[in-house]
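Morning run. Coffee first, then this:
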Amino acid sequence: MSKYLLVSFKTCPWVQRAAIVLREKNIDFEFRHIDPDNRPDWFLAISPHKKVPVLRLDDRISLFESNAIAEFLDDETIAPRLHPEDPVERAVHRAWTDYVPTFAASVTGAAYSDSAADYDKATAQIPGAFERLERALEKQGSGPFFNGSRYSLVDAAYAPFLQRYYFLDRIKPLGQIEKFPRLKAWGEALMDRPSTHSFPEVEFETMYRANVKRRNKWISQFVQAAQIAAE
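And here it is:
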């Protein structure tokens, strides 16, 4: 059996995606966190792009980029398969995982805005991204996941960014997801899934808020540690 080492920054959503897949596939792995501002030499030696995630196999091979890692893990271990068996459905799912970077930028861009005007511009992108997923979720039937009752790689890909939407919404209310009932139900199902969480929820939200505060962006002024709650 292979030995898996997942190298991470504690709050990186792309690493979180890989960790979710590892947990959903019931794969034992070591989680090793490094400081993004002080990346050790051993990490620089094994990471082709000098960034996380890196999944190290048997201390011999480095896999990188969260989508490639997720696909590898689903191919490498048979049960439970997280991609649909039907090739057409699988292609559709891959297309939706390809949309994740655009979705992430639209939904969490407010965290990186330098001014109130930039913040308003960033938050204006959220409804369009949410609407696309709302329409895609029309095919999920009774849910609760993207593929209906069966958890998939699409769920693992979107969970970290929906979680960050909720975090941002609790820092300064965005009031968007309530307008999209399918997306809201999907997000809640993903937040209830144990595999979503690498840390206790309140602990992780505390770390996220600390990062937002440290960035010193426009939204940073609204971070109040006393109001942290994983609802």
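The chain has two domains: 4-76, 87-227. Good start to the day.
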